[in-house]
Design a protein that fits this description.
Layout (H helix, E strand, L loop, with lengths): L39 H29 L8 H55 L5
Length: 136
């Protein structure tokens, strides 16, 4: 049987070879049709983690604003030119941080929506079981 070798990095492609991803069985999918399955506590934890990350980006925004308003140390051309470049960098940083904060808030909202759907389904199933004379 021929020996199997991993793919070799080719610098002309600008990418390292990636092995195929085969998800293992777990709460995130695997087995049949794929998809994600989380329990209530995991959904709640993920929602809080996304919000915490968004809060970190929001905290960093105040520091980025200081960069975006930097002034040169002197009145000569070099100081002014350097300060202008720093301000441009700060403006780009602000834009990036705002986008990342927004993304994290949107992800947290998705988990909050999933929590609401989970609770609604749980209530519906409980009602159905109770109406049929069963108990939880």
């Amino acid at each position: 049987m021929p020996e199997s070798r991993p793919p070799t990095y080719d610098p002309t492609t600008q990418r390292a070879p990636l092995p195929p991803v085969e998800p293992g069985a777990g709460s995130y999918g695997g087995g049949g049709g794929g998809g994600f399955e989380y329990d209530v506590e995991t959904l709640r934890q993920l929602m809080h983690e996304w919000n915490d990350l968004a809060n970190e980006f929001a905290d960093d925004l105040s520091r980025a604003r200081a960069i975006a308003t930097a002034e040169g140390p002197g009145l000569e051309y070099a100081s002014g030119g350097n300060a202008e470049l720093i301000r441009q960098s700060g403006t780009a940083l602000i834009s990036t941080l705002e986008e990342r904060e927004s993304y994290c808030r949107a992800m947290a909202a998705k988990f909050q929506t999933a929590l609401g759907k989970y609770a609604a389904a749980e209530d519906a199933h409980s009602t159905e079981i109770n109406q049929s004379g069963g108990s939880l």
